[in-house]
Amino acid sequence: MVGEEGAFVLGWEEVLTEEELSATLKASGTDFSLPGSLQVLCMSEEEFREYKEQDGWEEDSEEEGGSTLSNEALSRLKPPCKKLLYDSVLLTLESYGSDLKAEQDLLNNKEAYKSLSRREQQALHVRYGQKRILHQVLELVR
């Protein structure tokens, strides 16, 4: 349902793989900006079966044309979807070998930072940026 890689790509201001995330969450128009869509992962088994039988997938994808999954939209998700995203972000953060503060401390320690190879420095910047985005999403869906 999420695609071959099974991942969502989050940016500073919006979800960069909005098609995958919107297909997964399918929030209703009252709590989210996607008109006429439904929550898929937050549905009961019976609701999901009915939605699938009515070919809801095709209808919704045509309606979603100009919508974006901005950070503001993420903060308006229904509680079950917020929990799903929150838990997913926590799992992702746990997969890192260190936390955000450890990365920040290393970046601020000029001596330790200089002892890293150029490649390690670049990797540090990437990890730090990724963790900052993930922490931002945690705050949005809290």
From TrEMBL:
<dbReference type="GO" id="GO:0032259">
    <property type="term" value="P:methylation"/>
</dbReference>
<dbReference type="InterPro" id="IPR015353">
    <property type="entry name" value="Rubisco_LSMT_subst-bd"/>
</dbReference>
<dbReference type="GO" id="GO:0008168">
    <property type="term" value="F:methyltransferase activity"/>
</dbReference>
<keyword id="KW-0539">Nucleus</keyword>
<protein>
    <recommendedName>
        <fullName>N-lysine methyltransferase SETD6</fullName>
    </recommendedName>
</protein>
<feature type="region of interest" description="Disordered">
    <location>
        <begin position="51"/>
        <end position="73"/>
    </location>
</feature>
<feature type="compositionally biased region" description="Acidic residues">
    <location>
        <begin position="56"/>
        <end position="65"/>
    </location>
</feature>
<keyword id="KW-0949">S-adenosyl-L-methionine</keyword>
<feature type="domain" description="Rubisco LSMT substrate-binding">
    <location>
        <begin position="20"/>
        <end position="134"/>
    </location>
</feature>
<dbReference type="Pfam" id="PF09273">
    <property type="entry name" value="Rubis-subs-bind"/>
</dbReference>
<dbReference type="GO" id="GO:0005634">
    <property type="term" value="C:nucleus"/>
</dbReference>
<keyword id="KW-0808">Transferase</keyword>
<dbReference type="InterPro" id="IPR036464">
    <property type="entry name" value="Rubisco_LSMT_subst-bd_sf"/>
</dbReference>
<keyword id="KW-0489">Methyltransferase</keyword>
